[in-house]
Amino acid sequence: MSKGTELKYKINTGIGPKIVVIGGGTGLAVILRGIKCITENLTAIVTVADDGGGSGLLREDLGMLPPGDIRSCILAIADEESDMQQVLQYRFTEGVLSGQNFGNLLIAALNGIYGNFEDAVAKTHDILRVKGRVIPVTGADIHLCAELYDGQIICGESKIQPASIKAKSPIKRVFLMPEKPEAEAGAIEAIRQADIIIMGPGSLYSSIIANFLVQGIGEAIASAQGIKALICNVMTQPGETDGYSVYDHVTKANAYIGEAVIQYVLVNNHPVSEIYLDRYTKDGAKQLLPTHQDREELLAAGVAIIENNFTDVKLGYIRHDARRIANTILTLVQV
Fold first, then answer.
1. What is the DSSP letter of 288?
2. Cα separation, 3 vs 289, whole angstroms
3. Which of 210, 251, 255, 285 has the maximum number of C-beta atoms within 10 A of its C-beta?
4. What percentage of the chain reaches a pLDDT higher than 70?
């Protein structure tokens, strides 16, 4: 962690409950767009284990942390005009920059100017007039690794899922290299002050649990006074959560936090049309719906299950309904 981190991510002082969302990937950015409508006190704590795509190339070429998930989350809560959003989301299709996203390059440029990733992210907040905060979970150069049940050790977030699918062997455990990197001080402070801590949605191991492996994050969640809730994905993920139930998602998350602290789990209970499911089921994904057994096991574990139609289909892709999720979170905070 770089010197002065405590000053880079100032504590939010706006209107609304203090909400912390922990995760990564597309799912996190989607729900941030809804949550920013109910509070100005919003902090996203984002994994930096990504090593694929354009982010992976920048990570390898420039020796910087992967900017992709950070950029998506900043844009999700930015107070900018649509033209600027389009520019920052622009992905080059030709030449040496083919596949790169302009927003990633902006963060890379700021990383070069200011000399470290944390300052680059903080400066991006200023440029885009971000009301909330997006904080990388750690400033360390980390790699997510997994041990499969067949004994294989796979290192590299982008390699785990394909290896598991190819070997037809589920994930036994995940860990970071180096192990127990230091968390960003701003992330720990945000968790401690939160009225509610939301985990997910996103890939269970690579987007959510990867954050809990950072030194101090699990302990901060466990000791925090705020409400703790997990948002389940709409679909299972091949190579990560094949055959997982809602209860499995909760128990796995708790196991890596270090204590059974999750109090609520938000689950979609609305069957999605087969028309939209087809593109997912072809890859081996299945819709994750709560079962009677889930309800019984969660009740016995003291976890309240909140069911609703939390789905939203856009351009044929199944996403969470960000506004409905946000309203549910607001209700929990106000109880």
1. -
2. 46
3. 210
4. 90
User: Which ranges constitute the DSSP H helices of the chain?
Assistant: 5-8, 25-35, 53-62, 68-77, 82-89, 102-114, 117-127, 157-167, 185-193, 210-212, 217-223, 246-257, 274-281, 292-300, 322-334
Q: Which residues contact 4 (CB under 8 A, 6 or more apart)?
A: none
Residue 120 — left, alpha, or beta (φ > 0 → left; ψ -120 to 50 → alpha)?
alpha
Q: Specify burial of residue 127 (Cβ count, 10 A radius: 0-12, 13-18, 19+).
A: middle
163-204 pLDDT tens trace: 999 999 999 999 999 999 999 999 999 999 999 999 999 999
Give the pair of three-digit tokens for residue 259: 């204590």
Domain ranges within the chain, ordered by starting residue:
14-47+178-335, 50-136
318 phi/psi in degrees, rounded to 5: -85, 120
